[in-house]
């Protein structure tokens, strides 16, 4: 009826009834309804005041059909406690015991991984998330946690410098996931760290040129440039650095302007900016706007605001109906008056709750802006260092080409297969694009993340092969 927040308060009141055999069924039903509302809306988590009552549930008195809702609710409450850095409180301990007694071991593995990540116990984090992802279940709520678990597992393996395991973890993330941009960026990092430079270039290209090009991924061109440097592809590296400046110039200026004015009367209303961007009424760089809309806090709190506004309208409609309804009996009149008091009391608190949710959204968008500005500044500094390497490498390449004018011709013969280099020098055999679609230096890189075309010829290796060929077949000119 559009009164979910009011229903939530009533269900929470039912949860706080004294526990006995008759009330236990009512409490289980109330918890199941709360869980259904949380699942459908992504928010409306039960208030912290109900934690002691939920943690003391008499599970043996519950029907088996009620256990999934109990597990989900206990997990949601405990996760909120852990993320709020209250994982060591007596309430959190009681929730853990209740979740274990309810058969929620898989949920506990996920939370153990989160806590191990928070405390930087990387090996424990790996073990917990591996257990979580290895379980077989038809529970849709557990399945919905897999992408987040895979991302954290990949990061744990990355910290342990286990690149192949990190890549496998990242590849588990669904292409429609909200975590995909993070997964692709971090996969490009693992390829760079493991010296698989074409792989890093391919994934960075996907972030720059596919449907994800509007996303905030400033590390992609930096990783691409670094990989090109490692392949002695200095012109391509320089072009990629320039592409970063072109692609993120407007985003940096927008964020820099926001940062200067954020504490002044001229500061932007970030919530209004986000809604204006969403409705295409305000011009905000896509990289910034899409990052705002990816925020889980923004999504949850905005949904809560929508529910509150719908309930506000519905209460006004019900009050109008009740005021025009005259009961035939005194009992009806008393019930009518009681309902009006209840609805008026709820209606009075709605604006405060909306204001609180909007304040949380504005604070979150401010944190997102600060993070983006810091990231852009750091990437710009790193790109300056990469540029130095590019110019140094390009200078050496010019000297090399002057000293060995026959290198380009010989490199083409190696590429075409006319000259067979030593087997140890062969690095990749990933197939070729059709001849009409490629030049002499274009290769195809493909994996589950998509098929990409990138110039991945390793000129560093070719120079080494050239020296080896010169040793085996000295030219009369030399």
Provide structural commentary.
This protein has 478 residues and is an all-alpha fold. Strands 1-2 form a two-stranded antiparallel sheet. A hairpin with a 2-residue loop joins strand 1 and strand 2. Helix 6 runs antiparallel to helix 7 and helix 17 packs antiparallel against helix 18. The longest helix has 74 residues.
Instruction: Report the portion of residues in β strands.
Output: under 5%
Class derived from helix and strand content? mainly alpha
From the alpha carbons, calculate the radius of gyration and give it in angstroms.
30 Å
How much helical structure, as a percent, in the residues? 55-70%
| Spatial order of strands in the largest sheet | 1-2
Give a quick set of tags describing it.
478 residues; mainly alpha; two-stranded antiparallel ribbon; 20 helices; 70% helix; 2% strand; flat
Task: Give a short summary of the structure.
This protein has 20 helices and two strands.
What topology does this entry show?
Blueprint: H1 4-15, H2 21-41, H3 51-55, H4 67-83, H5 90-101, H6 105-118, H7 122-134, H8 140-144, H9 146-159, H10 163-171, H11 180-193, H12 197-209, H13 219-230, H14 234-261, H15 270-278, H16 286-294, H17 296-323, H18 330-403, H19 407-416, E1 443-447, E2 450-454, H20 459-472
Antiparallel strand pairs: 1-2
Helix pairs in contact: 1-2, 2-4, 4-5, 4-6, 6-7, 6-9, 7-9, 9-10, 9-11, 10-11, 11-12, 11-13, 12-13, 13-14, 13-18, 14-18, 17-18
